[in-house]
Amino acid sequence: MSDTQAHSVAYVRDTMLPQQPAPAGQSGAVQWLRENLFSGWLNTLLTLLGVALIYTLVMHFLPWFLHGVWDANSIKECRTIITDRYGEGATGACWAVIRERWHQFIFGFYPPELYWRPILTFLLLFVAVGPLLFTWVPRVLAWFTPVYPFLAVWLLWGGSGWTPIMIFAGFVLGAAILLLLSPRLGSIMAFSIGAFVAILYFLFVVGLLIGGLQAILPWGLESVDSAKFGGFLLAITLGVGGIMMSLPLGIVLALGRQSDMPLVKGFSVVFIEFIRGVPLITLLFVASLLLNYFLPPGTNFDIILRVMILVTFFAAAYIAEVIRGGLAALPRGQYEAADALGLDYWKAQRLIILPQALKISIPGIVSTFIGMFKDTTLVVFVGLFDPLKGIPDFIRADFNWKGIYWEPFIFVGAIFFILNFAMSRYSMSLERRLQRDNH
Amino acid sequence: MTSAPDAPEQGFRLSQLIYDTRYRSLTIQAIVFILVMGGAAWLVDNVIQNLNDLGKDFNFSFLGQRAGYDIGNAIIPYNNDMSHGRALLVGLINTLWVSFLGCVAATIIGIFVGVLRLSKNWLVARLMTVYVEVFRNIPVLLWILVAIALLTDVAPSPNAYKVNQQTGEAQASMLLDSVAFTNRYTAIPSVHFDRSLGSLDTALAPISLNFLALVIVLIASIWVNKRMLTHAAKVQESTGVRPTMWWKSALVLIAPVVILAIALGINPEEPQIKGFNFTGGTNVSNSFVALWLGLSLYTAAFIAEIVRAGILAISKGQTEAAFALGLRANRTMSLVILPQALRVIIPPLISQYLNLTKNSSLAIAVGYLELRGTLGGITLNQTGRELEAITLMMLIYLAISLSISGVMNVYNNRVKLKER
């Protein structure tokens, strides 16, 4: 019945009207503002508060930033220039301190003619970690990764060129024994023998070899004392060194804590809980004050190395907990599947369990790294020159820069922010890249 | 029925210790045990030898000696004639006090920021994101140093609060007429009682009986209120109608305390500038304020992220289901969303509290004498007993950490999902 009406109507529109834009109040900027800023009285109030906050902050700090002076030799000169330019009572930033002392913020007291060494080390760091971090980097470069730590230590501290080569040779020796013997004796025996030979080599042979070779063919770099390290050079050295060493140790501790063997599990738990229960500062004090009590009389080794050992322990305990979370989050079926395939413990861990567990743990691991990098500033309390307090205090001790606070804080804080923010963004992108939804 | 033939009886061979999975774990554990114990023995042996060489011994008798140094912010009575042990106690209480106040402030700011970061208001959400990212990515030491620099450099001297006789105005004005930041201390109001019940002398510190009475009354009111609520729940279960409780609860909780406080003549004592300094009220040292501020603001950024993640972890379906049942927004929040979100929030929150407590050892940067400053600082330097002082300090921090995580885990067990 109803369809008859269509024919009875005199006029039916046979073309569509063109679409009209939405009314002015419901589109574009006005609509966006209404939805996001003024959608109710509470929202409006919050917006007004936010605007007021931004206004106060900008009004307070912008003039100070705009009146910044880059060219001066002392804080007094800065203040005179600002008064001359902007009138009596004007305040401004004295960036001149950064311009004059930037090298101390970055390198500490490293000899200026040797700055190329830390810079080269830093650049090579990207070559070394590139193949691990980015897929577009050629895989061939992965061969450089294990060489890098030895090269970096040598470049930074200098000394005989034979030392890194011979120490590297020790690791190669151990690995070669492991690879040669494992088909015949099984991985456990091969590993034990390899480790044993390597330790013997490090204890008794390496010193003689280095001395002998150095006598025959002396070559090397000018050595730089640890006391000359400071600023971001120190922070990055400690941070990267700690990260590189704590990740393997953390994995071992996490596996130990998940182990079926009560004794191994017990030792891991005690170690992890002890380290996590005390502040890093106390551990740094152990490094600076107590470590020589625990070593044979007369042993005296480098303060940076001592601190790095304790920082590594500290980070490893936290990483162990993060990875334990990842291990626990894996479905039971993955372990059972590995057993069903007849894989032994290490093969199962290496091929099935750890890749997945580490993938789950990426956010936690990266935030541990960020925390550790920030914590490297605490070394100031054992007498090292960290960029945040050690170096600025040193600069303020100079009469010219007495009483300068904010500019070093802003400069150092900005660098820390950029590095850490970059790390956290990278970890997010890595998470996205590794995401597999079909697990 | 045939029984399986017995496994061929072979004698135990030594190689089984490595290749037979039945014995292998025992072998590995034995080797690990020997290695660890050997390492420990080596360390202890070195310590003994080193101590011998230095002519030192290992004992804690230095804790009984006279300390001889002053502590600016002692909460319990202390003077420099007391022992190092007493100084340790003062430091420990200072550590706990600043950590406690820091945790409270960080939680409040953190919840605030975390919730606002999820706000529909674009501007506020962005501002909170900036706050979180800035505070998370910069070392806490910087925030503590900034706070102390602000207080010592930017804050006016107490003199500036003085009213100028000619103009009738002061250079600086107090916050809400009761808090004054100066470059030496922060003056805050304190509580004053007109009628005092006296105080109870204990070995640790004298306890004001007025405060004790208030606390006891408050605890009693909470207990009574809880009983009343249980009763109300019972009535609701049996009759289906819940008796109106809100005014009874309010009365029980508030009235007794208020009546007691009025009876004792409670009144706030505002700081007043007299001469060159503030009197009345309490003067809190800047080192404490800076440490507290730096720790709270830094940790709050982490807590904000935890709160945000906790709320986001609850799927939207839960809210929709609650609305479909006819629950209003605030009931949905308190009955459906929060109980579930707390499960996600509490474990990481515990570790943030622990971090804050451990970070309080950064007090060394501002000169606030807490455990690390007394036992691990001045006492250690005066007595030269590094081994004892640092060992003791580590054990104390360990005990604090373990107790915090213990207490919070008990709470976590109460709110976690009950699986049946």
From TrEMBL, chain A:
InterPro entries: AA_ABC_transptr_permease_3TM (IPR010065), ArtM/GltK/GlnP/TcyL/YhdX-like (IPR043429), MetI-like (IPR000515), MetI-like_sf (IPR035906). PROSITE patterns: ABC_TM1. It is found in: Cell inner membrane; Cell membrane. The chain crosses the membrane at residues 41-66, 114-133, 140-157, 163-181, 193-217, 229-255, 267-291, 303-323, 360-384, 404-423. Pfam families: BPD_transp_1. Residues 232-427 form the ABC transmembrane type-1 domain. It comes from the Bacteria. Keywords: Cell membrane, Membrane, Transmembrane, Transmembrane helix, Transport. It is a multi-pass membrane protein. PANTHER family: INNER MEMBRANE AMINO-ACID ABC TRANSPORTER PERMEASE PROTEIN YHDY (PTHR30614:SF41), MEMBRANE COMPONENT OF AMINO ACID ABC TRANSPORTER (PTHR30614). Belongs to the binding-protein-dependent transport system permease family. HisMQ subfamily. This is ABC transporter permease subunit.
From TrEMBL, chain B:
Keywords: Amino-acid transport, Cell membrane, Membrane, Transmembrane, Transmembrane helix, Transport. The keyword Acetylation does not apply. It is found in: Cell inner membrane; Cell membrane. InterPro entries: AA_ABC_transptr_permease_3TM, ArtM/GltK/GlnP/TcyL/YhdX-like, MetI-like, MetI-like_sf. The lineage of its organism: Bacteria, Pseudomonadati, Pseudomonadota, Alphaproteobacteria, Rhodobacterales. The chain crosses the membrane at residues 23-44, 96-118, 130-151, 203-224, 245-267, 287-314, 335-354, 389-411. This is ABC transporter permease subunit. Pfam families: BPD_transp_1. Residues 92-408 form the ABC transmembrane type-1 domain. Coiled coil: none annotated. It is a multi-pass membrane protein. Belongs to the binding-protein-dependent transport system permease family. HisMQ subfamily. NCBIfam families: HEQRo_perm_3TM (TIGR01726). The keyword Transmembrane helix applies.
